[in-house]
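Agenda item 2: adenosine-5'-triphosphate complex prediction
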Amino acid sequence: MKRGRDKVSILSVSNVSYFYKSRYQTVQAVKSVSCEFEEGKTYAIVGKSGCGKTTLLSLLAALDLPTDGSILYQGTSTANLDRDKYRRNDVTVIYQSFNLFPLLNGIENVMYPMELNGINSKLAEEKAKELIIKVGLTEKVFKQFPRMLSGGEQQRIAVARALASNAKVVLADEPTGNLDSENGQNVVNILKALAHNEGYCIIVVTHDLDIACQLDVTLHMSDGKMEVG
Ligand SMILES: Nc1ncnc2c1ncn2[C@@H]1O[C@H](COP(=O)(O)OP(=O)(O)OP(=O)(O)O)[C@@H](O)[C@H]1O
Ligand SMILES: [Mg+2]
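Presented output:
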């Protein structure tokens, strides 16, 4: 993808390859991928099962480092960043299976990243309530535990929790995969609004082409490689 004339990429992937190595075999999951991600835009990463989408997302999240090539966040390679700080403050991940903490209620789940960042509990609670309302839920879910929430409600709590970190980059791996189409669409609408109204950079891995075509840029992966469509 070409770099916009007056936009600077928040994440810049250049010639990234990644190999899973074990004693028995080596799998090249990502093959010389280059792409750019800007704030204020939504991106879909699509492609067949096993083509390397989750692996690329985990490299963007700096859960691991590229075997070759580099990923720059605001100009600094993830290899040189303070990765704990990056994962706490700059990037956040939403999963297909919601991954809420089962023993924490709605508010407490959303407060968690703020508490990790040392924000005072009272403030964190107020902010958590605001975020829960912002993603279209009501006070009803404040004190409910994840097992008492529908899938759509759980995923919105997961989105609210992602926003609690203040990270500008939101990585979502099949965020609508466990939702019906109406709830899936709601989550997509929230993610689109976050990008277009508040400048988030939203990167969504999805199998759902109806969702992909609603996002600003679609990146196609095939057997570890990427092309822009
Ligand atoms: N921990 C691992 N060890 C070895 N190989 C792995 C590991 N994780 C993934 N792979 C391999 O790397 C390749 C890419 O996997 P990845 O999970 O990135 O695919 P994906 O595009 O996310 O697939 P899906 O759509 O099914 O989630 C696959 O061939 C997979 O088997
Ligand atoms: Mg995957």
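Discussion summary: Residues 53-54, 173 surround magnesium ion (ligand 2) (CB under 6 Å).
Owner for follow-up: CH.
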